[in-house]
Amino acid sequence: MKKIVIIGGGVLGTQIAFQTAYSGYDVTIWLRSKESIGRTKPKLESVKKAYEGAIKKMEKGTEWSMGIADPKDFNKEKCLKKVNDAYKNLKIELDLNKALKDADLVIESMSENFDAKKDIYLRMKDILDDKTILTTNSSTILPSRLAKYTGREDKFLALHFANSIWKNNTAEIMKQKKTSDDSFNKVIDFAKSIRMVPLPIHKEKSGYLLNSMLVPFLFSALDLYVNGVSDVESIDKAWCLGTGAPEGPFQILDVVGLKTAHEIVKMYTKVPSLIAPYNFKGIEKMLKKYIDEGKLGKSSGEGFYKYRNK
């Protein structure tokens, strides 16, 4: 594989693009509009700063990011050069035909909206080369639900990354029934080549491995808050001080982004309370209010917490 295309320039989309470029690939981010460029470029700058900050910590030996380098062959200057090269060489394209031309792998990383994903797959179907493998980074939508819209079911599967990809360097790779072994194995090899630890998933599961555990945890925290049981800071402190975790649920939500959280919650608003006893309607309404006020999470400078732009 040489040319990799990322569909979408959100929090994870920009991280996936940067890590792939850092690993030496030819990377293009496709965006839907000129306005999207103005939102994506600051995210890329933020990711670049995060890599530079991680390299400083690695030099001091205070924290290690395996997505950047192994301890045995760490070289600060080489890593910083790779960061600068990645930032300089990343391409942004609004023309879908140009973006997809000669792509070996396409990673769709749009927000959790089934119709939006379906529409982009239908648009890509007749543009993609025969060789192109198509993956989705969807957190909750099973690839089998989307496969029939791709025109390449044997070359379609899920490739899901954890946030802070340079540090939390896992790649969950999930088949759907019609995914070929060849495509599955090629994506596993690709994940290794960008310094990820591949986690093969042979049976479809909404939420993969990580989110199957993380999403109920976040729902529990949101439910406590929206029902007036406690405040954001206290809920986070209860988790961090009680478990030794570095971040609480609302700090995690700010990093993930409130739009993504809102899309996930919307899918559960019609689930009977006996099956999932959370106040999903209240949570959905609360998240929408935050979004309408421009509080989208850490990327916008404010979510459940306020963040200073450095």
Structure description:
The chain has an eight-stranded mixed sheet with strand order 3-2-1-4-5-6-7-8. The protein has helices at residues 11-22, 34-60, 76-89, 96-100, 114-124, 143-146, 181-193, 210-226, 232-243, 249-256, 258-266, 280-292; strands spanning 3-7, 26-30, 91-93, 105-108, 133-136, 156-161, 170-174, 197-201. It contains twelve helices and eight strands. The model has no long low-confidence stretch (mean pLDDT 95). A hairpin with an 8-residue loop joins β6 and β7 (170-174). 47% of the residues lie in helices and 12% in strands. By secondary structure, the chain is α/β, with parallel strands linked by helices. The chain is globular, with a radius of gyration of 19 Å.
Sequence of secondary-structure elements = EHEHHEHEHEHEEHEHHHHH
Oligomer: single chain
Largest sheet: 8 strands, mixed
Give the structural class: alpha/beta
> End-to-end distance, in Å?
36 Å
- The gyration radius over C-alpha positions equals 19 Å
Q: Give the low-confidence spans.
A: none
What is the residue-mean pLDDT, rounded to a whole number?
Answer: 95
Order of strands in the sheet with most strands: 3-2-1-4-5-6-7-8
Find the count of extended strands (DSSP E, 2+ residues): 8
Provide the β-strand percentage band: 5-15%
Question: Approximately how much helix is present in the residues?
Answer: 40-55%
Shape: globular
Instruction: Give the count of helical stretches.
Output: 12
What key attributes describe this structure?
310 residues, 8 strands, 8-stranded mixed β-sheet, alpha/beta
